[in-house]
Structure prediction request, 138 residues.
Amino acid sequence: MINSGGTGSITAVSSLNNAFALANNNRKVNAGLPGSGSNLPADDLSGARVLTATGTLSYYRQAGSNASNMRFNSSVWDYVGPVGGVNEMIVRNRYVVTLNGTTNSTTVNITGASVANANKCIPFITGILTNNLSSINI
Prediction:
């Protein structure tokens, strides 16, 4: 995926309310340049993926990063069981959280998201964008 981001088509999921995408990469959020094992700055390895339509995965990268294609590997999880089933996954929302190095945690207000018990909610990080140019201690 180039640094301006883009989209990819996938087999359509049942509903955006019951599906989400997760990163499969083990180096930050993308796997770097195809065929390369070299160290890269954090901004080049940062990125995110979001299920933006039932058949579309959208990718985001840091605008000033390496313009070459970077490898993104993703898994799409789709609940296909009965509505209200004991293992039903319900996506309450998709949030963007901004951290700045000083503030390294945040609380997202989920009021109005029909959450009966916040202790039963599991947040998933689907990407990290950074403009950090260092490849050390990231």
